[in-house]
Design brief:
Cofactor: [4Fe-4S] cluster
Mean pLDDT: 94
Family: Belongs to the aconitase/IPM isomerase family.
Radius of gyration: 25 Å
Distance between the termini: 20 Å
GO cellular component, one term: cytosol
Region (Disordered): 534-554
Keywords: 4Fe-4S, Iron, Iron-sulfur, Lyase, Metal-binding, Mitochondrion, Transit peptide, Tricarboxylic acid cycle
Strand content: 15-25%
Shape: globular
Number of strands: 32
Helix content: 25-40%
Length: 783
């Protein structure tokens, strides 16, 4: 692997010549000059480079390639010399573009500002979707969000203008729908600062969720590092029909692979069943692949993608993809690390939950299961939309269900909300009458934003601690995720099933066999919904909500007030002092599941995503302490008093005491939010020791100069007690593949030694030694 200073040297040369090496210029393109998007007319789709790199790698490996491998290896920085071994080597890649949602973009742009670089090196965009709270309805909620978030929106807009980043204003829609409509295409590689970036795989792209520091690397022109993914094949046969939807495919896969079964792997769908799924349906499946820990998910290029590209004003990209389609499909005879087969003819409508997205049930059985488990049967709220299921087809299928109910004088028994995925979807479903039908059946159309899916929901119908059930077409249903109530039992399913269950008002309803009662007292059964995949007319784009960056933003001023409670310029983290980490206190030994929601909660905390010190007041407040089975209650080892986790961490930091977190399996699953890594670093943490990590979180921890370590023997988790002190030794000889020793010091004076594994490579060790990846970049710029 090239030393980090070599990579930064290449960056400096590229910037000095104002060259975008990896985008085709007009003189280079031989077959066609096709812009990557209407918003970047001078940046071209580069299938020729993709083809060249694929051929180099195929010849080197001397075997057929999966589709995932073609696109990933097709973006290698050095396809001739790059070591390639699935699941082992680190790849240096050149993504085509970067996408950032507003909650994570704040920290990403603050880090980019700290880098001192004048302009981003690849096309990049900011999308305002996370800071809009659902309260009364779309227009009112949007106005309120623009008012209370004005400082943050102004920062993002001006930072975008200064550094060459496109800005999608609040009300534009959810980042992943915007990416699908405008930026994703077959063969593209996109990294996004949101875990559901894989949504773009529905258009045949490799789209990967990352933390903000990774995005900064790519925006700076530095090759991006990714451990060479394994590839899990999912072969689809048969055909979707009736009440079964694309959502049921991923709900089934989640039930098979579980929340960590896809870790370190790309899920590659293939087989004859693929052609029965719409392009937006494929996006739904790829989107929720994040819930099984997958690096990303992807479908092969087909006519459904070409049709969608044409309908979204990108027919030229579709035509170009046709010419290169052999590189946008897997090679015959390619091999997968694991193979899952699903017959769509046999697939039943599913509903997963509560509290975890991999607990799969058929809709037919969920009522009886809920009765046995003591889960509330009455459905308080049904919620459709979100980045996972807010396409025109999704809205159409839900509308088809609602129309049948209205024809019999029936409205929803549960509260019912609709979240359009984008301004284009909102405007089109308004024009075509879908939105009005959904209102007539009792629905409230929310803003084009994430809303309740990420906890941006001012819910009034229940009190915290009140046991209740909601059903959603969202992707994630961790404890307290949607409304901060740990007793809310959230189930995820398709939009049409949510609509049907909201009409019935209970989990004990299977629309395939059960009946509703009409206003006239007569029984009727809902027919399986049918709807157009795409509108018969062209999409209505709605309001223009995009801000182009100026060609030269050097004179643009970016405001960050020193007294702001929303934004805070970053100070560099301290460098490693060259010594072992001795006698660290255990801030918390976490019991069970610990997602990024547990580590850095969203909801009301989103307003502090640009202010590291303020948001650090939510550090690990949702994690369960094994010592007392409570959340946000840990023993202060210096005072022996119990108190909130953030307060205890600040106390240790004030007194110069290093601390460590001990955790369980798949630590950090869920969102890509790097605040879950920044916060422990900011408050004095040095290491996180667990049984296993989720991919994005492990990388985020490394980027911020922390040590993510795993037990060589998972049973050693039980040897550590919250009152122990831990020392990590061997850091002077820190090297790739070499385990570290951990000495456990018990209060009675006894000691024992365990071994800890890590996945650091040479560049990542340099990040640790420098204090963070950003520190290392700045060090090398000085040289």
């Amino acid at each position: 692997m090239a030393p980090y200073y070599v990579l930064v040297g290449r960056l400096q040369q590229a910037l000095s010549k104002c060259v975008r090496r990896y985008h085709v210029t007009p003189s280079q393109s031989q077959r066609a000059k096709v812009a990557m998007s209407q918003f970047e007319p001078s940046d071209y789709v580069n299938y020729e480079l993709l083809e060249k790199n694929i051929n180099i790698v195929r010849k080197r490996l001397d075997r057929p390639l999966t589709l995932s491998e073609k696109i990933v290896y097709g973006h290698l920085d050095d396809p001739v010399k790059q070591e390639i071994e699935r699941g082992k080597t680190y790849l240096r890649l050149r993504p085509d573009r970067v996408a950032m949602q507003d909650a994570t973009a704040q920290m990403a742009m603050l880090q980019f500002i700290s880098s001192g670089l004048p302009r981003v090196a690849v096309p990049s965009t900011i999308h305002c979707d996370h800071l809009i709270e659902a309260q009364q309805g779309g227009e009112k909620d949007l106005r309120r969000a623009k008012d209370i978030n004005q400082e943050v929106y102004n920062f993002l807009a001006t930072a975008g203008a200064k550094y060459g980043v496109g800005f999608w204003k609040p009300g534009s829609g959810i980042i992943h729908q915007i990416i699908l409509e405008n930026y994703s295409y077959p063969g593209v590689m996109i990294i996004g600062t949101d875990s559901h970036t894989p949504n773009g795989g529905g258009l045949g792209g490799i789209c990967i969720g990352v933390g903000g520091a990774d995005a900064v690397d790519v925006m700076a022109g530095i090759p991006w590092e990714l451990k060479c993914p394994k590839v899990i094949g999912v072969k689809l046969t048969g055909k979707l029909s009736g009440w079964t939807s694309p959502k049921d495919v991923i709900l089934k896969v989640a039930g098979i692979l579980t929340v960590k079964g896809g870790t370190g792997a790309i899920i590659e769908y293939h087989g004859p069943g693929v052609d029965s799924i719409s392009c937006t349906g494929m996006a739904t499946i790829c989107n929720m692949g994040a819930e099984i820990g997958a690096t990303t998910s992807i479908f092969p290029y087909n006519h459904r993608m070409k049709t969608y590209l044409s309908k979204t004003r990108r027919a030229d990209i579709g035509n170009l993809a046709e010419q290169f389609q052999e590189h946008l499909k897997p090679d015959p005879g390619c091999s997968y690390d694991q193979l899952v087969e699903i017959n769509l003819n046999e697939l039943k409508p599913l509903i997963n939950g509560p509290f975890t997205p991999d607990l799969a049930h058929t809709v037919e059985e969920i009522g009886s299961v809920a009765e046995k488990k003591g889960w509330p049967l009455d459905i308080r709220v049904g919620l459709i939309g979100s980045c996972t299921n807010s396409s025109y087809e999704d809205m159409g299928r839900s509308t088809a269900v609602a129309k049948q109910a209205l024809a019999h004088g029936v409205k929803c028994k549960s509260q019912f909300t609709i979240t359009p995925g984008s301004e284009q979807i909102r405007a089109t479903i308004e024009r075509d009458g879908y939105a009005q039908v959904l209102r007539d059946v009792g629905g409230v159309v929310l803003a084009n934003a994430c809303g309740p899916c990420i906890g941006q929901w001012d819910r009034k119908d229940t009190k915290k601690g009140e046991k209740n059930t909601i059903v959603t077409s969202y992707n994630r249903n961790f404890t307290g995720r949607n409304d901060a109530n740990p007793e809310t039992h959230a189930f995820v399913t398709s939009p049409e099933i949510v609509t049907a269950l909201s009409l019935a008002g209970t989990l004990k309803f299977n629309p395939e066999v059960d009946y509703l009662t009409g206003a006239d007292g007569k029984k009727f059964k809902l027919e399986a919904p049918d709807a157009d995949e795409l509108p018969k007319l062209e999409f209505d784009p709605g309001q223009d909500t995009y801000q182009y960056p100026p060609k030269d933003g050097s004179n643009q001023h970016v405001d960050v007030s020193l007294t702001s409670q929303r934004l805070q310029l970053l100070e560099p983290f301290d460098k490693w002092d060259g010594k072992d980490l001795e006698d660290m206190l255990i801030l918390i030994k976490v019991k069970g599941k610990c997602t990024t929601d547990h580590i850095s909660a969203a909801g009301p905390w989103l307003k502090f995503r640009g202010h590291l010190d303020n948001i650090s007041n939510n550090l690990l407040i949702g994690a369960i302490n094994i010592e007392n089975d409570k959340a946000n209650s840990v023993r202060n080892a210096l005072t022996q008093e119990f108190g909130p986790v953030p307060d205890t961490a600040r106390y240790y930091k004030k007194h110069g005491v290093n601390w460590v977190v001990v955790g369980d399996e798949n630590y950090g699953e869920g969102s890509s939010r790097e605040h879950a890594a920044l916060e422990p670093r900011h408050l004095g943490g040095r290491a996180i020791i667990v049984k296993s990590f989720a991919r994005i979180h492990e990388t985020n921890l490394k980027k911020q100069g922390l040590l993510p370590l795993t037990f060589a023997d998972p049973a050693d988790y039980d040897k550590i007690h919250p009152v122990d002190k831990l020392s990590i030794v061997g850091l002077k000889d820190f090297a790739p593949g070499k385990p570290l020793k951990c000495i456990i010091k018990h209060p009675n004076g006894s000691q024992e030694t365990i071994m800890l594994n890590h996945t650091f490579n040479e560049s990542q060790i340099e990040w640790f030694q420098a204090g963070s990846a950003l520190n290392r970049m700045k060090e090398l710029q000085k040289h």
